[in-house]
Specification:
The chain is an alpha/beta fold. The chain folds into two domains: 133 residues, D-Maltodextrin-Binding Protein, domain 2; 113 residues, D-Maltodextrin-Binding Protein, domain 2. 34% of the residues lie in helices and 24% in strands. The protein is built from ten helices and twelve strands. Strands 1, 2, 3, 4, 7, 8 and 9 form a seven-stranded mixed beta sheet that branches. It has a three-stranded antiparallel beta sheet with strand order 10-11-12, with no helix packed on it. The chain has a two-stranded parallel sheet with strand order 5-6. The chain is globular. The protein starts with 5 loop residues before the first helix and ends with a strand. The relative contact order is 0.21.
Length: 251
């Protein structure tokens, strides 16, 4: 298991801290966390809970946490995270890992992005060409970053050259491959699938400062109380689904 994954487990164990069984932990996370193989590394370490994973875009994951439908979120949508953190100052919020955003497409595509000076120039070349761009369109962190890059480039692809996937990173990459078009991808998923794709990292854009995507854990802070013995006690969660199953622990 990578060192970057340990803080994820640590934060969730602090949330649980339970001796009662069975305990169910509902986790909403981005599809790239699964596509990259990170979930396969994380889940075997949850010995005190059965984890039920909900794979959705980062924006929807944070809404599910806000609505009390899940216990914890792993996301990489900083703008959306900031909005929800302003509404929920009690949330525990930790940066735990990062990957890189890559603009990928055909080796010799019509937008000639291999000659682009940077990622902004590459996006402008795509918009000015007959190339198709495949958008996640799912309120994920990758979609959020894609939108910010189009905004920075002050252009947008025409409707006839824009395909909205509305699906996971893996499906979006397969659609991009089938149409030999362009998309923005997280590097973890891209490298996992690269051997099955006829796509390449598009020129110099993979070394742009805009490439990095940070993953963060968000979880409501456990409710604290003091028992009759005067010791500090922390409940496992304010969600009824966990509170019914958990015992308080000394912290």
């Amino acid at each position: 298991m990578s060192k970057a994954a340990w803080p994820v487990v640590a934060v969730i164990f602090v949330l649980l801290g339970c001796r009662a069984a069975p305990v169910y932990l509902d986790m909403a996370t981005t599809t790239s966390v699964e596509n990259s193989g990170l979930l396969n590394a994380l889940l075997p370490h949850f010995e005190r809970a059965t984890v039920r994973v909900h794979l959705v875009g980062g924006g929807l994951a944070l809404k599910m946490l806000s609505d009390g439908k899940v216990d914890i979120v792993i996301s990489h949508a900083p703008e959306t995270e900031r909005r929800y953190l302003a509404q929920h100052p009690e949330w525990v919020y930790r940066k735990v890992a990062f990957n890189q955003f890559l603009l990928v497409g055909p080796e010799d595509g019509p937008a000639h992005v291999r000659d682009a000076a940077d990622v902004i120039d590459a996006f402008r070349r795509i918009a000015a060409s007959d190339a198709t761009f495949v958008s996640r369109g799912d309120q994920s962190g990758t979609h959020e970053r894609e939108q910010s890059l189009w905004k920075a480039a002050r252009v947008a692809p025409s409707a006839e050259h824009l395909l909205v996937s509305g699906a996971s990173m893996a499906i979006t990459l397969r659609q991009t491959n089938e149409r030999q078009s362009y998309t923005l991808a997280d590097d973890s998923t891209f490298w996992q699938l690269q051997s099955r794709l006829n796509l390449a990292v598009a020129g110099k854009v993979n070394v742009s400062p805009e490439r990095e995507g940070r993953y963060r854990v968000s979880v409501p802070a456990p409710a604290s109380r003091t028992d009759s013995r005067g010791s500090g006690q922390t409940h496992c969660s304010r969600r009824p689904s966990l509170r019914r199953r958990c015992q308080s622990i000394v912290v």
